[in-house]
Amino acid sequence: MASLSRRHLLQLGAGASLALLAACRSGERSPQLLAAPGTLPKAWLSLLPSPWESSATAAPRLWPDDTDSAVDLVAMGDGWLSSVAPSRLQDLDAPQLQQQLGAQAQRFLQQLGAERAKQVLPVGVSPWVMLFRNGSAWLEAARGGWDVLLDPTLAGRVVLPASPRFVIDLADRLGGEEVLRRLRAQLLTMDDRQATSWLLKGEARVVVLPLQRCMALLRRDPRLTAVLPDAGAPLHWTVLVRPGDTPEPLPQAWVEQAWRQPLNLTLLRDGWRSPLDALPAADELPLAWRDLLLPPQATWQRCWSLPPLQDDVRSAWAERWRASAP
User: What is the pTM of this model?
Assistant: First the structure.
């Protein structure tokens, strides 16, 4: 066999090194975004940049402790935050995004506490609204406030979210313990996941859902009307968090796409509002739902967030819930 020249050996070595590097790259894991179905708008999720990949998980365990696959970013509704210990997360390290947040988002983060606020990025918000089927008899009262849910003619026809936390907070804003018992007595069920099925089948006359889950129905079913009361409404936040063991930085340019035109307007038309104070002009929204999608500033300022409960408060509320059973 002819001897190999030194140059040939160097070429072979370089080729082997390049092949090894290519093999390493092909074996690298793509960063993973985990989200329950419907958590993120499809128009935004479809723009997730390469090499990021998204995967879906179903309730009741959004982010299971025993997951076998690594996760680099989790999208969730704010109601899930109480199930995730701060020790499982790391700081976002995205000050340029956090500094853009509007007044409601800043208030939401302050309610979380200093440690948690560094770990959570609100990326979108939607008010909880009352969605009526053939609800003309109740619409005027509903525009004034949530106490329309106590109307005797709605007894047994109300569907609220499957969250005692939500129901107790709403009752407290309407009057306290006696209202809590009356409100629970009005319920057909507590089921935000299947709420629209209860409504469309005719068993419920009003359900309470985030506006982002109502807009598609409102466009195709003229029997339905959504109301955000002048008194304000609870807010449903979509947030991003970073697991503590990921080295992947937050894809900040992708987040900003949802906060900028033209995507910002597209998402707002679907009831999913950016967490910024600067929003599209009202005349860019459909006239039929303009005040719903972009309510008066005074109404928006009266809206409120539901931060996770501390352990001692959670125990007290659990006792209140047991005592208020109809």
Answer: 0.89
